[in-house]
Amino acid sequence: MVIQQRITLPPMPRGFHLITRNVLDAIGKLPDSGLMHVLIQHTSAGLTLNENADPSVRDDFSAFMNHLVPENHPTYSHIFEGEDDMPAHLKASIIGSSVTIPITNGRLNLGTWQGIYLGEFRNHGGSRRLVITVTS
Amino acid sequence: MVIQQRITLPPMPRGFHLITRNVLDAIGKLPDSGLMHVLIQHTSAGLTLNENADPSVRDDFSAFMNHLVPENHPTYSHIFEGEDDMPAHLKASIIGSSVTIPITNGRLNLGTWQGIYLGEFRNHGGSRRLVITVTS
Amino acid sequence: MVIQQRITLPPMPRGFHLITRNVLDAIGKLPDSGLMHVLIQHTSAGLTLNENADPSVRDDFSAFMNHLVPENHPTYSHIFEGEDDMPAHLKASIIGSSVTIPITNGRLNLGTWQGIYLGEFRNHGGSRRLVITVTS
Q: Is the pTM of this model over 0.90?
């Protein structure tokens, strides 16, 4: 059985944001067991699982990824969409565009400290669309 | 229901290549809704989703990943398979070996600008095998 | 049909470890075809696919990732859980928290040289829990 839902998230500032609650609210009742897949339909933002508690982790993600994939790097030729564009594409593929999470007893079976992060890599990325698919 | 197909891609030069069409042609008719998973059965090439339009993005991916994971790095001890071998293994795990994409209304539900990239990280990687699995 | 199993791995030293056999022993008989998803329920360890043969590849993964995501980087503010903590979170998201593998003819359909790596990014990470989900 497949349940699918598309949602649009409000614009978020550049950085990492915890969106577990947005995803759960959108998909509604989960099956007893299965998998939930979430895709972000964009190439300059990403999804990953990481610590859901201390916001300083998300701040450090943002700062370190900006260091790892800097703007204005001499290897970039794709620069006409803004200096935040090419690093955003690279971060999207390094962090990933989707997450897959097991469902057990009708709930996401994440670890205690795991949540879903949206990495917004553009300065003004605007609204972002997600496609949530549950298979069971 | 599970549909599965194995395909062999022709040798491609080192760099990033758009292979969405190769995958779609191989798998044929998709179900109404579900998930498509694609695995590359190699440890020195990867799969990711990124921009399907401007080829300069793929050029920059190649150049930046060569910068991020350089050849002849002093940390490498696994050097007997060539200087492009160990960086290829590392890039494969940083970029990832598989992609999972939702299927909606019988089509891949990617964003407008998303396509499937094959990252070929060896100088002479040869043919690459993919396993495509559709669950619905 | 969904088969699910949770396993606890014994503590492993910081570094990369081949765990394909642990996963296969835990899940038991696989269906004829489908997908196997494995999640690590932690935010300072990761899962990826890479070379299953020469252990020097795993040593180089560890050394290079320590170089790529160093301890005591000036961008880190989340430092009260130890100097290995924030780099462990970052490595977990760069390497990834889960792998998805096709099942064909009742077996994992990996490439000849592919195995499942656990990346242990803490100095003393302790036992790690995995959730294995098979859909078919």
A: yes
